[in-house]
Write a structure and sequence with these properties.
105 residues, Arc Repressor Mutant, subunit A, 3-stranded antiparallel sheet, 8% strand, globular
Length: 105
């Protein structure tokens, strides 16, 4: 069952939101209305995960995780456009794919 026209199924939404890092990614991208670079996204996610100023090492670890695991998964479900070569994420599809109330903390 789809939540509404052009939205994810409940199962797909729960699959995305079940992983804390993906929730942080989706929260950042929901707030971000324009294309964002992978490093900038990783920095934002690191800040949400750690609560303190993130280290370069933690940002790099998160960027690798996002690039290889989380962004392809989110893109596969048509919630974002991820250019893996340019390391750019376009969040324009998120609001259409995932209701904002599911992203509320």
């Amino acid at each position: 069952m789809r939540l509404a026209e052009s939205q994810l199924t409940m199962s797909e939404a729960h699959e995305l939101l079940a992983v804390p890092r993906r929730r942080h990614v989706l929260e950042v991208l929901t707030e971000q209305k324009a294309t964002i670079g992978l490093t900038e996204l990783a920095t934002e996610v690191a800040g949400r995960e750690g609560g303190a100023t993130p280290t370069e090492e933690s940002i790099q670890e998160i960027a690798v995780s996002l690039h290889h695991t989380h962004l392809p998964k989110i893109s596969q479900l048509d919630c974002i456009d991820y250019d893996a070569t340019a390391h750019e994420i376009d969040p324009a599809k998120i609001e259409r794919a995932l209701p904002p109330e599911l992203l509320s903390s």
